[in-house]
C-alpha cells in the first residue's frame, strides 16, 4: 500500500487539526493520519513512514483476519502456530510483537505476561480502517514502541442511519457473518452511534505436522470466534463531546498437544472499554480526557497427562489527559498518562501482581513553507525505573510530489511479567531493552505514480532473549531462562511503488533487512532478510479482479540458527462484483498453487483455500 500525498495549504492543515482530534477524529481514512503524532495531520505533513489500510481495501481484500491483512503490507512479517485462530506473531521492521504497540481506537491492548497483542482475537468485522506507523514512537506512546505502532479504528457513526451485512463460506467449512448499524442524529445535541457484531467458525486443519513428535495429533484444529463492538458519542455543545467505546471478542480454538482422546483447546477473551470527554476549552486549546480498561484473558484445556488446565488474566487500566495547543499554525501537545497492569494466574503466585507507570510527554509539530519539523520527549516511571525517550524529525518538500525526510528517536521495551517472574524462567533483575533508531526517507507521488524508499538503522541494547537450556547453568531454571544480551541491530531498506495505467493498478513493496543478535552474530528468530509483495488489479464497471504475490526468503526457527525455514512464494487471486449501489459479491482464492511452506517449524500452514461472500451496504 502506498499513501497518496497531497500538499494542502497551512490553513487547511490547521482546520483539519482543529476540527477533529485523536482516535475519535471524524475524517475518514486517507484524509488525515492520527497515530503518527497523536493528533490529526494531513498526510503531506507527516514525517514518519506510514501506511493506511482503507475501509474499501479491507472490504475488497476478502481477508479472513487482521493478520492476513497485515501480511500484505510493507515492513511486516508474520509467524503462526497453525491456521487461523492459533497464536500469531507480527514483526514490524524486524521488531518482535512485544516490541510494537497495538491500539484500538486509542486504547492500548495486549497481554502483560507476553507483552504482545492476541492478534487472532481481534475481530476484523469491527474494523473501519488501520494505520501503521513505522519506527520508534516511545516518546509518544511509552514502553514497547520500538518497531512501530499499529492502530485499529472501529466503525464510527455519522450521517443518516446505515445498515451493512456480510455472509461468506469457504474451504474447511469456514463460515462468517457480520452486521453493523451506524448513524448520527442532527441538531445541537447530536448523538452518533455505531454497533457491529460478527461470528466466524471453521473446522480448520491440523495445527501441527507429524515431524513435531509427541505433540502431533492428526485431527482438525478449528476455531469459533464471536465479537461485538460499539461507539457512542454525545455532542454537549459546540466543541464539547463525551462518548464511550466498547469491544468484546471471544475466541475458542483447538490446538495439538498429543492428546487424541481429549479436546485440547484454548479460550481467549479480549475486552476493552473507554469513556472520554473531548473539549474545546479555548479556541487554541483542545483537551481530551480518557479512561480505559482492557482485559486479556486466556485459558488452555489439555489432557491431565500433559499441561492440564491453565488460566492467565491480565488487566490494564489507563487514564490519559492530552492537551493540544495551537501556536500559530503549529501544534504543542502536552500529555499525562497513568497506567496500571494487573496479572492473575492459577499456576503460580506472583510476588508483584501489579505495576503502575506514570508518564509525562510533550511534542511540537511545525511547518514552515516546504520545511516540516517535529520533536517529542517523554518520561516514564515504573517499577523498572525511570526512562526518558525522545525523537526529532525533519522533512523537506523539493516539489509538490517529491519529499525527503530524516529522523532520530530513542525507545525502550519494559520486561514482561513472564520475563520477570515466571517460575524457573524469569529473572526480576532483567532490565528494559533500549533502542536508538536513525532513518532517512524519500517519497514521490504524482497521483498516478507513487514511489518511496526508507532506510533505517535501529540499534538495541540489553536485548532480552530466551534459551533452553540456560547458558549460565540449569540450577533453578528448569524452563530455560530469559536474560539481557549486549546488542542487537535492526537494519533495513524498504522500497515501495505503485502505478495506475488506465483501469490497471500495479503495486509492489520489498524489504531488504538484517535483523540480528550482534552478541552471537545470529539472525533473529523467524525473520527473513528479504520479503515483499506484488499486486496487480483491473477494474471494469462493476468488476474488479486482482492477483497478489507474497514472497519471503528463508528464516530460522531458533536463536542458534540451527533450524532453517525455507523461503516461499504464494499466489492469491480475488475478485469483486457490484450488483448495484448496495449489493456486492467477492471471491478469494489463496495459495492457488497449493504451496506447502513454513511460518514456524513443524506447524502447518493453509494450503489452497477458496472463500466467497456477499455484502449488503458496501459503497
From TrEMBL:
Biological processes annotated in GO: cobalamin transport; monoatomic ion transport
Membrane topology: Multi-pass membrane protein
Keywords: Cell outer membrane, Ion transport, Membrane, Receptor, Signal, TonB box, Transmembrane, Transmembrane beta strand, Transport
CDD domains, per the entry: ligand_gated_channel
TonB-dependent receptor-like beta-barrel domain segment(s): 202-592
Superkingdom assignment: Bacteria
Residue stretches making up the TonB-dependent receptor plug domain: 50-149
Pfam families, per database record: Plug, TonB_dep_Rec_b-barrel
Main location: membrane
Cleaved signal peptide residues: 1-25
Family note: Belongs to the TonB-dependent receptor family.
Protein name listed in UniProt: TonB-dependent receptor
Amino acid at each position: 500500500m502506498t499513501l497518496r500525498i497531497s500538499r494542502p495549504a497551512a490553513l487547511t492543515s490547521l482546520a483539519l487539526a482543529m476540527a477533529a482530534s485523536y482516535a475519535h477524529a471524524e475524517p475518514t481514512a486517507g484524509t488525515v493520519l492520527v497515530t503518527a503524532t497523536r493528533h490529526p495531520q494531513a498526510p503531506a505533513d507527516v514525517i514518519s513512514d506510514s501506511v493506511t489500510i482503507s475501509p474499501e481495501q479491507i472490504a475488497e481484500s476478502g481477508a479472513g483476519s487482521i493478520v492476513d491483512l497485515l501480511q500484505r503490507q510493507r515492513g511486516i512479517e508474520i509467524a503462526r502456530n497453525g491456521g487461523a485462530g492459533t497464536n500469531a506473531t507480527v514483526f514490524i521492521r524486524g521488531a518482535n510483537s512485544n516490541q510494537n504497540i497495538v491500539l484500538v481506537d486509542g486504547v492500548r491492548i495486549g497481554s502483560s505476561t507476553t507483552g504482545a497483542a492476541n492478534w487472532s482475537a481481534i475481530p476484523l468485522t469491527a474494523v473501519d480502517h488501520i494505520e501503521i506507523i513505522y519506527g520508534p514512537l516511545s516518546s509518544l506512546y511509552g514502553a514497547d514502541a520500538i518497531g512501530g505502532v499499529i492502530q485499529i479504528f472501529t466503525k464510527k457513526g455519522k450521517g443518516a442511519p446505515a445498515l451493512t451485512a456480510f455472509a461468506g463460506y469457504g474451504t474447511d467449512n469456514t463460515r462468517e457473518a457480520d452486521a453493523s448499524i451506524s448513524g448520527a442524529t442532527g441538531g445541537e445535541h447530536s448523538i452518533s452511534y455505531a454497533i457491529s457484531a460478527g461470528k466466524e467458525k471453521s473446522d480448520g486443519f491440523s495445527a501441527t505436522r507429524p515431524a513435531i513428535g509427541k505433540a502431533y495429533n492428526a485431527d482438525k484444529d478449528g476455531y469459533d470466534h464471536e465479537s461485538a463492538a460499539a461507539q457512542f458519542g454525545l455532542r454537549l455543545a459546540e466543541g464539547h463531546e463525551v462518548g464511550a467505546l466498547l469491544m468484546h471478542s471471544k475466541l475458542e480454538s483447538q490446538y495439538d498437544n498429543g492428546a487424541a482422546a481429549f479436546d485440547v483447546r484454548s479460550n481467549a477473551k479480549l475486552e476493552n472499554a473507554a469513556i472520554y470527554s473531548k473539549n474545546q476549552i479555548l479556541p487554541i486549546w483542545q483537551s481530551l480526557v480518557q479512561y480505559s480498561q482492557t482485559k486479556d484473558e486466556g485459558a488452555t484445556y489439555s489432557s491431565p497427562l500433559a499441561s492440564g488446565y491453565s488460566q492467565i488474566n491480565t488487566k490494564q487500566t489507563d487514564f490519559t489527559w492530552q492537551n493540544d495547543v495551537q501556536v500559530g499554525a503549529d501544534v504543542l501537545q502536552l500529555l499525562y498518562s497513568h497506567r496500571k497492569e494487573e496479572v492473575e494466574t492459577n499456576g503460580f503466585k506472583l510476588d508483584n501482581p501489579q505495576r503502575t507507570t506514570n508518564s509525562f510527554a510533550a511534542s511540537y509539530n511545525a511547518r514552515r513553507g516546504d520545511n516540516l519539523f517535529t520533536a517529542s520527549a517523554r518520561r516514564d516511571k515504573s517499577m523498572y525505573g525511570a526512562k526518558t525517550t525522545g525523537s526529532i524529525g525533519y522533512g523537506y518538500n523539493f516539489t509538490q510530489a517529491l519529499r525527503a525526510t530524516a529522523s532520530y528517536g530513542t525507545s525502550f521495551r519494559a520486561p514482561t511479567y513472564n520475563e520477570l517472574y515466571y517460575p524457573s524462567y524469569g529473572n526480576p533483575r532483567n532490565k528494559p531493552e533500549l533502542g536508538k533508531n536513525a532513518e532517512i526517507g524519500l517519497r514521490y507521488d504524482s497521483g498516478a505514480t507513487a514511489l518511496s524508499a526508507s532506510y533505517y538503522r535501529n540499534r538495541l541494547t540489553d536485548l532480552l532473549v530466551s534459551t533452553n537450556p540456560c547458558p549460565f547453568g540449569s540450577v533453578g531454571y528448569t524452563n530455560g531462562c530469559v536474560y539481557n544480551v549486549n546488542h542487537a541491530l535492526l537494519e533495513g531498506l524498504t522500497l515501495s511503488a505503485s502505478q495506475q495505467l488506465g483501469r490497471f493498478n500495479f503495486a509492489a513493496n520489498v524489504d531488504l533487512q538484517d535483523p540480528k543478535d550482534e552478541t552471537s552474530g545470529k539472525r533473529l528468530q523467524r525473520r527473513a532478510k528479504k520479503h515483499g509483495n506484488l499486486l496487480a488489479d483491473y477494474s471494469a464497471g462493476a468488476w474488479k479482479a486482482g492477483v497478489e504475490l507474497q514472497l519471503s526468503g528463508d528464516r530460522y526457527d531458533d536463536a542458534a540458527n540451527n533450524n532453517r525455514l525455507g523461503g516461499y512464494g504464494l499466489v492469491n487471486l480475488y475478485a469483486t462484483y457490484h450488483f448495484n449501489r448496495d449489493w456486492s459479491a467477492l471471491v478469494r482464492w489463496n495459495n492457488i498453487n497449493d504451496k506447502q511452506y513454513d511460518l514456524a517449524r513443524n506447524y502447518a500452514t493453509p494450503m489452497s483455500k477458496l472463500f466467497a461472500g456477499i455484502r449488503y451496504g458496501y459503497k
